[in-house]
Amino acid sequence: MSYLLGVDTGGTYTDAVLMRDEEEVIATSKSLTTRHDLAVGIGGAVRDVLAQAGVQPGEVVLVSMSTTLATNALVQGQGDRVCLVFIGFSERDLARQGLDTALQGDPVVLLEGGHSHSGIEAAPFDAAGLRDALDAMAEGVSGFAVAAQFGTRNPEHEIAARAIIRAVTGVPVTCSHELSARLGGPKRAMTALLNARLIGMIADLIEATETLLEQLEISAPLMVVRGDGALISADLARERPIETILSGPAASIVGASWLTNEKDAIVSDIGGTTTDVALLRAGRPMIDPDGAMVGGLRTMVEAVAMRTTGLGGDSEVSLAGSGVQLGPRRVLPVSLCAVAWPELVHGALDRLVSVDRIGEYDGRFVVPLSKAVRGLSERQMQMLERLGDKACEMSSLIRNRLDEAALQQLVGRGAAIVSGITPSDAAHVLGRLDSWDRRAADKALQLFARRRTSAGTALCEGDEALACMIVDQPTEQTAQTLLEAAFAEDSYDFDQPVDELARHVLTRKGLDHHRGVVALDVGLNLPLIGLGASAHSYYGAVGKRLNCKVIVPAHAGVANAIGAVVGQISMRLKGQITSVGEGRFRVHFIAGPQDFTDLDQALAILKKALGDAAQETAQDSGGVGVRLRFEQEITSAEIEGRRVFVEAEVTAIATGRPRISAEN
Q1: Alpha-carbon torsion, ordered 395, 400, 406, 410, to 10 deg
Q2: Beta-carbon count within 10 A of 122 CB
Q3: In angstroms, how far is CA 612 from the centroid of its own chain?
Q4: Would you place residue 230 in the very low, low, confident or very high pLDDT band (cuts 50, 70, 90)?
Q5: Is the dihedral of CA 412, 418, 422, 428 positive or negative?
Q6: Is 82-199 CATH 3.10.150?
Q7: Nearest of 484, 492, 446 to residue 465 by alpha carbon
Q8: Which of 12, 31, 66, 476 has its CA 20 to 30 A from that of 516?
């Protein structure tokens, strides 16, 4: 009999499940995610499931973890300050593929160098310029991302830059060719940049988990769920944290399939920070061929085809015209803040409710999370010192617009969090939740209800009316996201942007079953699997709105942790062959390009190299019983009546089950 432990660390909650032989869930638990020390929240959930099941720590043979921390960080623009080393590109290239948006003001070093499409050096690498830039860098960074022009065709300059940066700075370096073999320099650079930004965050999570497991005397190997639902070793996740974006959602899809046995369905998972929507086909999550899309940024990470929106139980409630809008930023619910800081929260709310006027920051608080944050500016450090180690009213911390910007940056770096009203607070007011301080929620909503709409009138009368307005909003926003996902995955090409289709008057009237001279009906043609802690009370209304069957399985609130346990190890490596003249085929190896005169020979040698590397990586990640298969795509063109080879792409896929402690 084997016991397997699954853990999911989210923005709000950390979930744990204990399974027997991958066949039965025998214990589940939830604990608040403790951002100041992740081991506290993880430990609370793990100890609880072990105690519930009466299982000794030494009996656990596998620990597997999924997380939404990377996804949430990208959605909210968080992460460490890093530097991009951009080789062979111009400043204009920074404005392509969302790279300038992803930079968020972080430094860039533009250098001469790079290669041509065929892998031949286009210009010498400016090693001296890189050393000068490193010496002149005034403010510290936590890591570097390196991207060279056509670095996937020849990574020589990326590798040279990495060696110099490591020798001079000693901080982590991410090379773009390590993350993707596809062309598209700016997008590949953005992927490397985001990876570098996430290294510290994911390393902290893995270290906290490993420390806890050691304290509990659990010696089982630790695996991490990748964005496509497969498992990788903790060591690989440290190096490539970008591959854990959509880790939690991917684990949820795998868990949904296991829990329901549904083969074709739409899966929607609402958490504290985000709502994630994906399609289940033939029992497997669909993979996004264009790369994972998170927070409006299109990466080159192979991950589930997922629509992630900043909508969750802890989404910030803001005024929008004559109503409210939720997200995308996560805030700490006032009702939860009051549990930790009761005198501050109730004292401030009682004072503010007693007066007629309401200020811009009234009813909102700032809570410190960590002083050990890398890459802060002088102004940000000053604000962090003023904040100290205690929560405070937001109005007392912000003196001007520069302070407001500095606070937003502190939040983005994970040094602090804002507390404000959320759907969780509204649920407390309506009696649907009783986890935290309802009195604080009552007062905060009463205060917010006084805010003036665009028409100059009060938003609504009292806290209960506002609570109803807030809890209705997730239904509409989730329905919108589900419709966009459905239109995007439909086999028919509607030849219009999916967001416009979802908002089109015919779609809206079809949802309402319009009956005039014209009869209109619109709905989802697949069942909707609802996941998340609030799924049972939430997705019924969503299903009714979308005219579809709704399935909310047992253990819907911990599907992500279940998916972490039942996943498999899978490694995919890609390689290319290009044409450099008639009868000459260039294979692009990591060590540099090599030419062949026979295509079959070139394909065989590339497959051998990729297969060996994929198999070795799968085994190093703890895979046993590893199986190897290949996919290849050969592109040709017709020129003067004959077929001419253009290029080929080969993918080696190594899969196996994770090694358990008894097999070590």
Answers
A1: 0
A2: 16
A3: 30
A4: confident
A5: positive
A6: no
A7: 446
A8: 476
Q: Alpha-carbon distance 117 to 641, whole Å?
A: 26
- pLDDT band at residue 256, thresholds of 50, 70 and 90? very high
SS3 category, 290: coil
Q: Where are the beta strands (DSSP E) in 226-368?
A: 231-233, 265-270, 275-281, 284-285, 293-294, 297-298, 306-309, 315-320, 323-330, 332-333, 365-368
The rounded radius of gyration (Å) of the Cα atoms in the chain is 26
- The pTM for the full model equals 0.73
What is the distance between the alpha carbons of residues 490 and 110, in angstroms, rounded to a whole number? 42
| Upstream peptide bond of 328 is cis (omega within 30 degrees of 0) | yes
* Nearest residue to 194 (alpha-carbon basis) of 36, 114, 111, 75: 75
| DSSP E strand boundaries for 590-641 | 592-596, 623-639
What tokens were used for 61? 């043979």
* Amino acid occupying residue 349: L
Q: Does residue 266 contact residue 527 with C-beta atoms inside 8 Å?
A: yes
**CA 335 – CA 256 distance, rounded (Å):** 31
Domains of the chain by residue range: 82-199, 315-462, 568-663
Q: Determine the distance from the C-alpha atom of residue 505 to the mean position of all C-alpha atoms in its chain, rounded to a whole number.
A: 32
Whether 139 shows a pLDDT value over 70: the answer reads no
Judge whether 378 and 43 are in contact, CB under 8 Å. no
pLDDT digits (tens, 9 = 90+) for 151-197: 888 999 999 999 999 998 888 899 998 888 788 888 889 888 888 88
Residues 6+ apart with CB under 8 A from 359: 395
Q: Residue 374 — pLDDT band, cuts 50, 70, 90?
A: low
The pLDDT score that the predictor gives to residue 664 is 46
Express each pLDDT in 477-487 by its tens digit. Answer: 888 889 998 99
- Angle between helices 438-448 and 462-489 in degrees, nearest 10: 90
Mean pLDDT of the chain: 87
Q: What residues does 80 pair with on adjacent strands?
A: none
Phi, psi of 104 (to 5 degrees): 55, 35
Tokens 């989404």 locate to 315
Nearest-angstrom CA–CA distance, 618 and 231: 10
> What average pLDDT does range 340-352 have in this prediction?
95
The three-state secondary structure class of 276 is strand
**Sign (positive or negative) of CA dihedral 197, 199, 204, 209:** positive
Token digits for 459? Answer: 């938003």
| Three-state secondary structure readout of 377-433 | CHHHHHHHHHHCCCCEEHHHHCCCHHHHHHHHHHHHCCCEEEEECCHHHHHHHCCCC
Distance of alpha carbon 337 from alpha carbon 323, whole angstroms: 25
Closest CA to 183 of 260, 253, 118, 122: 118
Domain 568-663 has CATH 3.30.160: no
Q: How far apart are CA 296 and CA 74, in angstroms?
A: 9
Between β-strands 528-531 and 550-551, what pairing exists: parallel, antiparallel or unpaired?
A: parallel
Q: What is the pLDDT of residue 77?
A: 67
DSSP 515: B
- What is residue 322's predicted lDDT score, i.e. its pLDDT? 79
Q: Which spans in 227-269 are helix H? A: 234-239, 247-260
Among 397, 378, 379, 399, smallest CA distance to 388 is for 397
Query: Distances from the Cα of 248 to the Cαs of 220, 474, 638, in angstroms?
Result: 21, 20, 45
Kindly tell me the burial class for residue 321, based on how many C-beta atoms sit within 10 Å of its own C-beta (0-12, 13-18, 19 or more). Answer: exposed
CB 426 within 8 A of CB 466: yes
